[in-house]
Amino acid sequence: MNFFRILIEEFKAVFSNGTILLIVLGGSLMYAFLYPTPYKKDVIRKQQIAIIDMDKTNTSRELIFFVSALPQVSIEYVLDSQKAAKDLLLENKIFGYLVIPEGFESNVHKGIPIYLGYVANASYFSVYGTIVEGLNNAANALGDQIKIEMKMIQNHYLVHEANLLTKDSIPLFNSSIGYLNYALAAVLIFILHQTAIGGTMLIGAFQNYENNPDSYYIKASSLQLIIARFLVFGAIYFILFLLFFGFFFQMYHVNIQANWLDFWCFAFVFIFAILSLGIFLGFLIKDTSLPTQIVLVSSLPIVFVLGFIWPSDLIPDFLKYLANFIPAYHGINGFLRLNQMGAHLEQIMPHFFWLLALGGIFSSFAYFYRNRKIKRMKN
C-alpha cells in the first residue's frame, strides 16, 4: 500500500475521531487555560486575618500597626476572644489570627520573653506559610524598634552591630518566589506528555476494536503505519509545543531561557519518546475506554515520582529507578534545566539519551508486536 495513502488515511482517522480530538486538543488546551487560573497572581498577598488583642496597650497597638503594613496579610477583625476568631476561621472568613497575650507590654519592658500565638489554616500550606512569615516579620520589626528605644532610654549610643553573616536572598530560577515558575512550567509539559500518550493509545484501541480487514491499518506494513502515526501526531504536538512554550509560558510569565536550537533538539526527542510509548500501548489495547482511564489513574502517582512536587530525596530508591522509564521524568527535568535554569543541551545529555533510548525501545516493541499480531491474523 502506498505510504502517502496511508498517511492521508491516518490523518483522516485521527481528525474524524471526536474522542481523540477531545483528549489531544481539547484536553491540552483546556488544562493550559484552566489549571493555572487560581495561581495567576502567583505570589500570595493580603490574606485575611484577625487579631486578638488581650493587652490593649500602646505596644500591642504598635504591633497591630506593623502587621497592618505587611503585604502578606490584611487585618479584617480585631477581636477580644479566641472563640470568635476560631468561629471565623471555621467559616473561612479568615485564614488565621494573631493572639497578643495579656501583659505583653510590661513583659517587653522587663525583658521577659513573650510568646505570640500564630494560628493559621495549614490545610492551605502556601497561605499558612505566607501568614506565618508576615506575622514573624512584624514581630521582628517591633522587637528591633524596642531594642533601639531601650538603648536610647538608657543613654546608650546607637552603634550598628557588626554582623558576621548577612543575608542577601537571591531567588535563583524563580525570581517571583511564586507557584508559576515553581510548578506550572513542569505541569504544562506533563499535560502534553499525558495527552500525547492518551491520544496515540486511543487510535490504536479504536482500530483494534474495529479490526476491519479491509482497512488501511491492517493492509499497511508495521513500519509504514508507525511512521505515519509518528508524522501525524508529531505534527500536532509540534504545533502544541509552539503554542505552549511560545504563548502560554509568555502569558503566565514563566521563565524561558533555553537556546532555541537546544530546545528543539530536546523537544523532538521527547516527542519521539512519548509517541513511541503511546503507539506501543495502543497496539496492546482493545477496550476504547481504557486509554483515558490509564492516563487519569497514572497521572497523580507519576507527578509525585517526578521530583518537582515531592522532594526527590524522600522518594524511595526503587521508585526513582522506575521513574527512569517514564519519558515525563527526563522530559520535565530536562526542560526545567533548559528553560528555568538556562542550561545548555550538553549539560542535560543523560536525559536526552534516556529519551532517545526509550523512544527506540518502545517503537521497536510496537514494530515487533504488530508484526507478530499480523502474522497470527494471516494464519
From TrEMBL:
Superkingdom of origin: Bacteria
Organism: Helicobacter anseris
Keyword flag Transmembrane helix: yes
ABC-2 type transporter transmembrane domain ranges (all copies): 20-367
Membrane topology: Multi-pass membrane protein
InterPro entries linked to this entry: ABC-2_transporter_component, ABC2_TM
Stated name of the protein: ABC transporter permease
One of the record's GO molecular function terms: ABC-type transporter activity
Pfam families: ABC2_membrane_3
Keywords on record: Cell membrane, Membrane, Transmembrane, Transmembrane helix
Subcellular location: Cell membrane
Cell membrane keyword on record: yes
GO CC annotations on file: plasma membrane
Segments crossing the lipid bilayer: 20-37, 179-206, 226-249, 261-285, 291-311, 348-369
